[in-house]
Amino acid sequence: MPEEIDKVGSVSQRRYEQIVAELRDVVEQQTRGQFTIGDRALEIEPMREPGGQGPAGPEWSVTATLTRLAEDVGLKYSTVKSARWTSSRWPTDHRHKGVSYTVHRILAYIEDDQERFAAILTPPKDKVRWTPDDASRRVGNRVETPVTPTEKITAIHSLAQDDQVAAAVTSDFLKRPEVTAKVTTVDKARVVEEFTRDETVATTAATSLLRRPDVAFRAMSDDTARFQVNHAQAERSRQAREHFQETSPVAPAVRQIDRTVEFLDLVTACHSFVAAAGRTVPGLRDRQLSDDERVIVHENVARVRATLDWIETAVDTGKVDMDDELARLLRGQ
Asked: Which domain holds residue 253?
């Protein structure tokens, strides 16, 4: 076998094995050292119930004692405190040679003593020895190198705790069609609701969606949605009437007429239709409607024409009756 294939990094397989053996000795020494720190801290301050008082009196709390010990030996208080707790979970005769102190500390979170002592003797299936990630999986902690989808999701949540980071990640994910395709309908609806809490965004989104005939049809099948749309139309008509009275050049002349509510409503409806068409039609420039969309528009234009003829007949003759054909047309049949 060529030498360059039988390498680990920049060293040969043989040299790599020598380094591993050397470092295992170092790790073993560090493990003994960490347990020694914990044992001595435990000797000075045995584990006791929260609020319990030691023999040295109330002025020497556990925190005060461990802080002094940490300062006297040049360590952090948290290091000494953690080592003391770990030693308390691993009596000397249950510490396992060949398992790092890090693994001992992680497995120390197993509450039951017998379960904990048995666990350290039984590495995961297909593993020769415990690794910190395997120990974290055993106790349900987050791993440093996520492998399963659940572990990766947990890692992403941890990294995206900052709102700005989360927003940037979400935006990137939503740009990937293969990602959005796997999101359930319910979750998609929740995302849309969250993104449309802002009134301006909600208005823009709703307007765009209701321009799609199939969406508009299904939305109007909901009683609440249909009621809100009708209410909005009535409110818009009221506002349009006020706007007409305030801004239309013919408004002064109209005010001189002995008018009825029906007359005002009719003039306002015509004014609103013309104003709405003036705003909407220019938006069709360079836009090609689909066949279905054109059919729908033509059907509505036919109803508008029929309605205008009906209005003229009613104004000129006072007759408001409509024939069956007109009635069916206005009903969209």
From this structure: 222-286
d(CA 61, CA 53): 7
Sequence-ordered strand ranges (E) for the chain: 7-8, 11-12
SS3 87: helix
Examine the fold and report which residue of 262, 286, 310 is the final residue of a domain before the chain moves on: 286
How many H-runs (helices) and E-runs (strands) does the chain carry? 17, 2
pLDDT of residue 78 exceeding 90 = yes
What is the C-alpha R_g of the chain?
Answer: 39
| Distance from the Cα of residue 162 to its chain's centroid | 12
Beta partners for 44? none
Q: Can you tell me the distance from the alpha carbon of 101 to that of 95, in angstroms, rounded to the nearest whole number?
A: 9
Together in a domain, 103 and 243: no
The Cα-based distances of 197 to 96, 168, 205, 206 in angstroms read 56, 18, 11, 12
- Residue 302 CA to residue 326 CA, distance in Å, equals 10
Which has the closest alpha carbon to 208: 226, 194, 197, 196? Answer: 196
Asked, for residue 245, whether it belongs to a domain, the answer is yes
Is residue 54 very low, low, confident or very high in pLDDT (cuts 50, 70, 90)?
A: low
89 and 116 Cβ atoms separated by less than 8 Å: yes
Beta-carbon contacts of 19 under 8 Å, excluding residues fewer than 6 positions away, are 11
User: What number is the average pLDDT over the span 66-89?
Assistant: 96
**Cβ pair 120, 99 in contact under 8 A:** yes
State whether residue 199 is helix, strand or coil. Answer: helix
**Burial of 31 per CB tally in 10 Å (0-12, 13-18, 19+):** buried
Asked if 204 and 227 sit in the same domain, the reply is no
193 falls within a domain: yes
What would the pLDDT profile of 260-284 be if each residue is shown by its tens digit? 667 777 888 888 888 888 888 888 8
